[in-house]
Amino acid sequence: MRRRLALLVVATTCLTLVAFLVPLALLVRTVAEDRATVRATADVQGLVPVVGTADTTTIRLTVEQLAAESGRPVSVFLPDGTVLGAQEPRTAAVALAARGQSLTAELDGGREIVIAVQGRPDGTGVIRTVVPRADITAGVTRSWLVLAALGLVLVLLSLAVADRLARTLVRPITELSSVSHRLANAELTARAEPAGPPELREVAAALNHLAARIQVLLREEREQVADLSHRLRTPLTALRLEAESLPDPADATRVASAVDALERAVTGLIRQARWRSDPPDADPGGATADAAAIVGERVAFWSVLAEDTGRTVTLDLATGPLPVGVPADELAAAVDALLGNVFAHTPEGTPFTVRLTREAAGVAVTVHDAGPGIPAGLIERGASRAGSTGLGLDIARRAAQASGGRLDLGADVEGGAVVTLRLGPPGRP
């Protein structure tokens, strides 16, 4: 933008200078030509009384003296054909002046001035002189150089002014861009200093207002999540007590495990909301989890429901430990989301396989079922054809991205969905 403004001002200045300096340069040349012509005409007009009344000798001496003083050739053509002074041939202009008409004519080497002298007893005499081209253009080149230098100075001055003006516009825009990037990087305390034209100051004020509003909304979100946590503590405690009172130890353990998973999910939600509201003091990417332990635990939990619905579960775990760069509760939530989709979107009795393998860039958790495949509604966040929230795959995707990995969705050649959660090692952004 700064360069474009400078080019615009320079182009405008150049057009203005061309519009003024070119006519001025032509005027300078015209004035120089007229000045040389008038000076030469005035010199030869002084010969008119002498040519009209004096004898030949006097005329010759006067002409030679004028030619020596002016540096221009001067000729006098008498009616009897005598030529005094510079011996020049009779030109068309001399012939015309002999009829009583004075005039000025252009020559290849300059300008010809002829003056008719009437009153001589023997006829009309003619005084002729030639103004050389050097006299006609004397001082024109220097004047043009002065005008060109003046134009160059004006262009440089306009360029300096344009650059200064562009700085006053570009600096606030650059600062606004920097502040917007800082806000995008979760530095919500960043503020723009209103500067520049009124429009840019208004944009800076609007950006600051937006940042302040985002802080308020995030603070309200954190408070609402904290309030939700407080509201859920009592039901969770009641569920835990109910689980402990179950007569069957296996059922009690299973329900208690579900309550623990729910409590971890709530705690993770609170922690995540607080981290988004307030920038963390430590690097959140430093959290780690053992993928082998988490995947094995979650598959064991879902195996009970799989048995109740007639599903065959195949578990293929690589030898652990397999550390990944994602907190344990987030990894557990991601695995639960993938397994929950199997139960939600496949008919009862559909078998599925969970495989945990090592990779060069970390580990891969693959869930392969023999169902109808992934519904199109699950591809988009917040959309589902099964009556759910549609956020299951998004939870898994965010967990993968937090560790530097990704979530791959596909289909088996024989049918069924293949979902692969690729997780990066600890310390990878």
Automatic annotation (TrEMBL):
Its cofactor is Mg(2+); Mn(2+). It is an enzyme of class 2 (transferase). It is a multi-pass membrane protein. One of its GO terms (cellular component) is plasma membrane. It holds the Pfam family HAMP. SMART domains: HAMP (SM00304), HATPase_c (SM00387), HisKA (SM00388). The keyword Transmembrane applies. It comes from the Bacteria. It catalyses: ATP + protein L-histidine = ADP + protein N-phospho-L-histidine. InterPro entries: 2C_sensor_his_kinase, HAMP_dom, HATPase_C_sf, HATPase_dom, His_kinase_dom, HisK_dim/P_dom, HisK_dim/P_sf, Sig_transdc_His_kin-like_C. The chain crosses the membrane at residues 143-162. Keywords: ATP-binding, Cell membrane, Hydrolase, Kinase, Magnesium, Manganese, Membrane, Nucleotide-binding, Phosphoprotein, Protein phosphatase, Stress response, Transferase, Transmembrane, Transmembrane helix, Two-component regulatory system, Virulence. It is found in: Cell membrane. One of its GO terms (molecular function) is phosphoprotein phosphatase activity. Its EC number is 2.7.13.3. The keyword Magnesium applies. PANTHER family: SENSOR PROTEIN CREC. This is Signal transduction histidine-protein kinase/phosphatase MprB. It comes from Micromonospora rifamycinica. The lineage of its organism: Bacteria, Bacillati, Actinomycetota, Actinomycetes, Micromonosporales.
